[in-house]
Task: structure prediction
Amino acid sequence: MKHGMNIAFFGSSLVSAYWNGAATYYRGIIRALHERGHHITFYEPDAYSRQQHRDIPDPEWATVVVYPNDEKAALRMVERAREADLVVKASGVGVFDELLERAVIDLQCPERVVAFWDVDAPATLERVQKNQNDPFRKCIPCYDLILTYGGGQPVVKAYKALKALECVPIYNALDPSTHHPVPPDARFEADLGFLGNRLPDREARVEEFFLNVAAAIPDKKFLLGGSGWEDKPKTSNVNYIGHVYTRDHNAFNCTAKAVLNISRESMAANGFSPATRVFEAAGAGACLITDYWVGIEQFLEPDTEILVANNGEEVARHMRDLTPERARRIGDAARNRIVSEHTYAHRAEQLEIVLECKRKEVAA
Result:
């Protein structure tokens, strides 16, 4: 695009990944857009103790506005967004979502595109499909554009069925400046590491693909990172280390022999929804084992760039068979694939093309 846009972005948090899995996705996309000449103002509420658990300072590549946790403050931020060329309301801000989803629609005009960016589309769609009176249903046809964190054609089809004007998946990706190989760190030594917060639609899968596997192969060392697992029963070969700050993700991914990805139930059921940690770990050259989901090969080739498991028994089999040499080969191949095809620079370029077409359409 010839001219940089002013973008107003309403999201959960850019500066804190605390109970905020979308943080690295936001950072990657927004940094890449900044590098292409756009100016982004990120509006985030002071909620869920995220400001007390910041893991980056205010970045040079975005203006961060933290607003008080009340409705009047949220609406004042919407008014400030009238200066923008593009207004984005992301899903899962955590407070005043319904209010913001309605309010930003009022900012639409021929000079301004208003988009909803769904960072958890399978869950959003399941919610509105179950509840005909969900307030968000009425908002969907009003947005100029629906962007999603992923989901492929199943998500596009579902949003179109709900009268979305347009729906485009912008997959998460790798930011090579933040996620890359580093020396191993003794804190994270393990045969298999898993990093993820305890969430209702992930917990049963973590039991099957990680905790039960640890119980089945007691001679292997397992490392569990993420918030909320303190009181979860674990065998003695599981080392629980709590919340892992993003500054330590590279060391986490580079130290364990293999790193596990476990999708949330809705993501796995829908497919085409690789978690951010897939790109982070691959970018660090980790040997990844993932639960199966449709569309994996669009991102990484099974058996050569990633190992795939349909159940806990297959995770255990991979762990029994995996040599350090093969783990390195798989990790190196994954990194080469992701760097060449799946960085946030690739995603920002895709987004620009989508927005340029949409701006012409809105202005016409």
About this structure: The two ends are 18 Å apart (CA to CA). DSSP finds 13 helices and 13 strands in the chain.
